[in-house]
Amino acid sequence: MTLAAGLAVMAVVIGALGKNPLQAAGAVVDGSLGNSFGIGQTVQIWTILILAGLASAIPFSARLWNIGGQGQMYLGAMAAAGFGITLPASWPGAVLVPLILGASTAAGAGWGWLPAWIRNRYGASEIVTSLMLNFVAVLGAAYIIRDAWPQGFAQQTESVSDNARLPVLIDSLRADISIVLAVAAALGLWILMTRTRLGFAVRALGANRAAALLSGVSEGAVASAAFALGGAAAGLAGGVFVLGVHGALLNGFSAGLAFLGIAVALAARLNPLSVIPVAALFAILRVGSNNLQAGAGLSPATGDVLIAIFVIMLMVVGVIRFSYGELVDG
Amino acid sequence: MEQPNPKPALALRGIWKRFGAVTANASIDLEVHSGEVHIVLGENGAGKSTLMNIAFGHMQPDAGEIEIEGRPTRLTSPADAIARGIGMVHQHFALVPAFTVAENVLLGSRSARAGMLDRKGIVDEVSEVSARFGVPVDPSAVVRDLPVDERQRVEILKALHRDARILILDEPTALLGVRQIAVLLEIIDRLRDDGRAIVLVTHKLGEVMEIADRVSVIRRGRKQVELARGEFDQQVLAKAMTGQLIVDDISRSAGRDEPEVVLECRDLTVPEPSSGPPVRGLNLRVRAGEVLGIAGVEGNGQRALIDGLTGSARCEGAIRLNGEDIANALPRRLRRCGVSIIPEDRQGRGLVPDMTLAENLALVDLLAPPDDAPRFVSWRRVRAEAKELLEAFDVRPPDPDLPASALSGGNQQKVVLARELSRRPRLVVADNPSWGLDVGAIGYVHRRLVAARNDGAAIVLVSHDLDELMKLSDRIIVVYRGEISLESSRADVSLDDIGLAMAGARR
Amino acid sequence: MVSELVLITFFVTSLQLMVPILFASLGEILVERSGVLNVGIEGVMLIGAFTTALVGIESGSVGLALLAGFGSGLLCGVALSALYVRIGTDQVVTGLMFNILAIGLTSLLRDQLIGGQVGPILRGISVPGLSRVRFVGDVLAQQNALLWAGIALTPVVAVALYRTWWGLQVRAAGERPGALAASGYDVWRTRYAAVILGCGLSALGGTALVLSSSGGFVPNMVAGRGFIALGVVVLARWRPGIALLGAAVFGLAQSLQFLASQIDALAGVPRELWLAAPYVATIFVVVFSLQSRYPAAVGVPYKPGTASQH
């Protein structure tokens, strides 16, 4: 239902740009799913978008605006690059990969926890702080790339050792195990949100902060947990980029995917399980729109534009809705 | 009294208004003439506020007509109403707390002056209007810092400054003490003599007797009767209003001889609660099986006391619960110690409207669980327990999967009671627990609170409603400017004593 | 030590970098005072920058480019106020989506329409009297009209907010919209006006970026300045005068890297550290502006008919 409405909106937009929507849709599908290279890329983006979507969905459920997914992703990538380069290359993959991804996850969680801590300790809005931490993290990565482990003058670090690369699952698609990790993360967080006390506390805090506080929720702990969980997912995405996609830390590697994760979380209505299909749809759009240049005469950024319009439309028709507390007197 | 003009200043004819399945107004007629005070009397939830919101353009009626000075009029917004000379004093004042009195008054001014504000001129102008009508306020004061009666006067000034001929006052006495009510009634008297038409909405009989030229009684959205001065007395009105004789069916068990002290506050100061004025150096004790009623004009520190007791504001001094110091404990710890909280604002603080009844009933258990509680939630068990509680507390409909927002106010309050009282609390902090409910629901709330008291809970009850306090309390204290101005057992105190203490007199 | 030339360059750059943040902050103050949080300010600035570059390149006229930048901001304001105010979507996420849209749209159109071309830019103007003063004259001689316009605009915005009837309405809409409605005003209309005008001003921040540099457009060239403005507004406690100071501080912070590169003693410090200064500074600003209180109704959409409640 929602999906059909969304596709209709996109068709109208593409039509408005003077292109044939069917032709464009054909090009999108062809580019993203038409050959093994396209499929492989789509699966990669899908993986990242699931994790980036989770990074927003969990804190948003507590009505905490984690806009720092990009920075958390960068921290995860920096950790992966650091450990992937410096840990002994002779260690087996079965040790290296879990160790490094664990470090990425922890680094992302730590960076995510920071704005929550500042909020708890000083009452400062997490919107501005988590945003600013993005820039700090990006500059940190720039330093690592330029100074710590430079690869000549290329815009990337040295490569991580071969044993640290993610095992490939399907050779022809160059698909590695990261998609399995991402789906598992979504499932795990879904169980956490719906079946545990912590998840309930997160949701209660988001649905009515005042009532949750009076009922005894420990706001600091729950906010920290929500932010750290989100950061962990983003950090894992960063690790996946380094160990899987690129084999090194690249300047500007995230290519806007962290912010797109916010769109994924919203369109999935913050449900970790729905994040999986929504991320797939958006991945198809994003990868497929690369093919539009040749196919229907539009630029690759079209995918992002379409996704943004799609999500705004969902908000306009009320599919995505947030409740607001009463204004406080005095 | 002068002969009223043939054409009423404001006439509502055949007003209908429905909200979903609830009919708030069913074919209501109401007329008010210049130089006349028309009182609209009814219980909470009878439909009075809806009618007044329609008269001021906040809402549009489903059917019916509005005439002003005999001319049919459509009021699509407050702007329309204001342009036609109607002014309204809202129950929850429509003032900007961060603005000064003068800025607020000017915000309501419809004079054609666009462009620059003349700050000095504003203050002078407001002083002039305030002197002319004998409505004392300081034009440069910031509204946030004003007590409730002065805020109300600002609203009246707002209407007078733009020369409103028709004044609607929605429950103007609800938050006032005896002395402030007297001041208000004097002001209203002067405005009547000045030839203005006044509609005053209330659920209190007393003030009707004093100033009404005409009374309309509304019950369950329908007008029951309209009486002119001389035709009504307290009994007639009470019967029309409630449709029944009020029966006090509350049975309280005799207290034990020397029950233990559950709550003890020593030198309790809540210096800067976000909710209003502070309390200073309060000493009080509540024993098991005792209801301590707290009276006071709104804005004299009762809010601060509640915030201090419920861990919502920082406080100094000692608060002991069965001897254990709980000053500055967060709600989480209070809940674990057996404190139950019934907030005044049930939609804002009592419930999570978007969550199901089962989730709302489990809110405290899940958010402030004992240390050894499992990390996973068994929703099956939560639902089963919810089902039992909904039946036991007579919530309708007793469906645990319904969102709390789908219930009526009375049933929502029953859900809060079910959650808070089923935990066998040692201490209950109840803040205006029957505010805004209909008669039946009020009776239910009262019975449940007394039952909790009979079971040995200590209860702190804050209420605007003196009748409620007299009915439920074992002891009563009155707060005035953040301090206790009267403390007495209920049996030894009269309503007059309480009224005097609320106005600041000490015994 | 550093030479006078280095210091002059440092202050010249600082003032240039201050201007975009100043316009963005002034615009955002108007918007937030009316009870709306525009996280989409970054996108508004990008669209302002792109439109300025496009019109400058096509027409060759600086004046037209400037007007077009402002006009594009007003249009963004129309679209955003429809969402924020009329429909009442959540302001934070709507703003974020708008940013994604703006980044995508401007880079898409750049590739199709202007590529790497550059247009006209604003030249420095000399201020009579000041230009002969040592140092100060040198710094100010290189500044263009937008700096002076921004400085002149600051008291205008302050007067509009505090000394006019319109400002009274705007502030009431941000503090207690129900009270504004009960006083007979249209809350939505008041907020439309503030959001549209505020977005126009913010877009001029993007315009300043283009007209004070190359006259061309680079994808994502606003680079977080809109977000910095959100922090400056908090620091300034929603007062235009303090925002001017705040913008100046951030101008200095952004050119620290240049100053540091000229000081031998600091050569070992990685340049990323200096580049991070404005962002870290913003965090400290919001952390230590605790007393500053957002207008009470910021972020909460207003629904008519609820006025009697609040």
Structural topology:
The complex is a heterotrimer of chains A (330), B (507) and C (310).
Chain A: H1 2-16, H2 21-33, H3 36-61, H4 69-86, H5 93-122, H6 126-148, E1 168-170, E2 175-176, H7 178-195, H8 197-207, H9 209-214, H10 219-246, H11 257-267, H12 272-289, H13 292-295, H14 302-316
Antiparallel strand pairs in A: 1-2
Helix pairs in contact in A: 1-2, 1-14, 2-3, 2-12, 3-7, 3-8, 3-10, 3-11, 3-12, 4-5, 4-6, 4-10, 5-6, 5-10, 7-8, 7-12, 8-10, 11-12, 11-14, 12-14
Chain B: E1 10-19, E2 22-32, E3 36-41, H1 48-55, E4 63-68, E5 71-73, H2 78-83, E6 86-89, H3 101-107, H4 119-132, H5 148-161, E7 166-170, H6 178-193, E8 197-202, H7 205-211, E9 214-219, E10 222-228, H8 234-242, E11 261-270, E12 279-287, E13 291-295, H9 302-309, E14 316-321, E15 324-325, H10 331-336, E16 339-342, H11 346-350, H12 357-361, H13 363-367, H14 379-392, H15 409-421, E17 427-431, H16 439-454, E18 458-462, H17 466-472, E19 475-480, E20 483-489, H18 495-502
Parallel strand pairs in B: 3-8, 3-9, 6-7, 7-8, 13-18, 13-19, 16-17, 17-18
Antiparallel strand pairs in B: 1-2, 1-4, 4-5, 9-10, 11-12, 11-14, 14-15, 19-20
Helix pairs in contact in B: 3-5, 15-16
Chain C: H1 4-33, H2 41-59, H3 62-87, H4 91-114, H5 136-141, H6 145-163, H7 165-175, H8 177-182, H9 187-211, H10 225-235, H11 240-261, H12 271-275, H13 277-288
Helix pairs in contact in C: 1-6, 1-9, 1-10, 1-11, 2-3, 2-4, 2-9, 2-10, 3-9, 6-7, 6-11, 7-9, 10-11, 10-13
